[in-house]
Amino acid sequence: MSLMIPMVIFMQQRLVEVSNKDDAIAMQAYMKIQQPFYGVKSPARKDVFKQAREHTLVDDFANYRRLVLWLWSGTHREELYLAMDVAEYYKKFRTQEAFEVYEEMLETADNWDTVDKLASNLIGGLVKEHREFETKLMAWGTSENMWLRRASLLAHLRHKADTNLPLLEETILMLAHEKEFFIQKAIGWVLREYSKTDPIYVNTFIREHSAVLASLSQREALKILTQTSY
Prior knowledge:
The protein is mostly helical. It is about 65% helix and about 0% strand.
């Protein structure tokens, strides 16, 4: 038996022990999803992971992959959150080989609480280091899955001066017509984040494309540029 199975069982048991029914109901209602919650908030969940890793060594990529995907297939939302905690914590395994793991997770993610962290924290880092994965972003941008389209934007979120501007522009303008809130919001968010690196570029881009960009996207993009003229 893999050592990862007892580690998963340990975390599941601890989640049950520290669960809170009232918080579970409130958390599920806030997210508006069908998947149930244990009712374990972030600090307590991170403590569960800390306890688990103190007695189980994740010593190679195969075990890292097993642990992440077993947690991701959990019945309760906090198990998915733990899967992302694990994926992010073990930095030495966040290699090119890990991309297919994160992609598998993303393809079954069903709301912003999972999509955004996968795209910006995990996938985005690999795309920045290994530009061949940009072909995946291009494919996601045309996907029927709205969450993949959002991910095609948010994977650029933390790239700062290393942002592939031609690809980001192409993706934004391709998706700018969409009425979907989560797409409009993501366009504004990624532009706002990039405005911390190049405010003149963002201000100019918004001006030049104001006719096609949704008002929501423009408001979000310009939030930290107000009171300044470029």
